[in-house]
Every structure is written in C-alpha cells, then in structure tokens.
Fold this sequence. Notes:
Keywords: DNA-binding
Distance between the termini: 85 Å
Radius of gyration: 27 Å
InterPro entries: NA-bd_OB-fold, Primosome_PriB/ssb, ssDNA-bd
CATH class: Mainly Beta
Protein name: Single-stranded DNA-binding protein
Strand order of the largest sheet: 1-2-3-5-4
Strand content: over 45%
Organism: Jonesia denitrificans (strain ATCC 14870 / DSM 20603 / BCRC 15368 / CIP 55.134 / JCM 11481 / NBRC 15587 / NCTC 10816 / Prevot 55134)
Number of strands: 5
Low-confidence stretches: none
Largest sheet: 5 strands, mixed, barrel
Shape: elongated
GO molecular function: single-stranded DNA binding
Number of helices: 1
Amino acid sequence: MAQISFQGRIIGQPELKFSQAGKPLLRFRTVENSHRQIDGEWKDVGAAWRDVTVFGKQAEHLAEHLADKQIVAISGRLDAREWEKQDGTKQTSFEVLADVVGIVPARQQAPTQPPTPSPAPDPWGAQNGGFPEKAPF
C-alpha cells in the first residue's frame, strides 16, 4: 500500500462504529483545497476529497475530540477498494487507513490593539532604582 500524509478539513461529523468483532473504528471525510497564484492573485484550483478510517483506541479517543470543520494532519496508507455500481460497471475508490491523526490548532485572531507593556516592578521596593538622590561624596 502507498503511504500518504496530508492536512485537510473534516467535512461532516466523524462517525464511531464497531466492527463485527467489536473493534472500534472512526470514519470521516476530509477536503484539502489547492490554491495557486495566477496572474498575481491566489485562486482555488481544486480540492482533494478523502475518506479516512482510524482503528482501535485511537479511534475511540479521536471520536471525543474531532468535529466538523476541524483541520487535521493525517499520515497513513492509501487503500484501493473495488466495487460494482447498480448498472454493473466496476468502480474504484480510495480510502486512507490512518496510522496517525493530529489536530491542527485553530489560528488565533490578531488583537486589534497591541497590549501596552506595564513598567517592570522595582525588585528592591525603593525609588530611584535603589540609589539615593545625592551622591554620598
């Protein structure tokens, strides 16, 4: 199987299921948008949709933390599945069997006004930096 690593946005709510043997598996879909600079402007040039499956304890843990529209980084194996449509034509779909899934932190909004630094406190609790007003000589 081919290895794959990518970053994408979860589309829809991840779904925790259990196999016939009682093993947990988490399924969700991601989209990775591609952008390219064309004539000096950034434009959307396509999207890669991927179905992802996570197994075991990681599936149960992630089910509690993943949500729609969240950005994740995924590393795993690309698995091809063949299936037949109702009209009899054969189709191939690809699924990512994730080994590692990481949650990408959301971007912080920049503050509208930078914080004003407060003066450092005098560690000795004295005025004039701990020195007398007049020189002692």
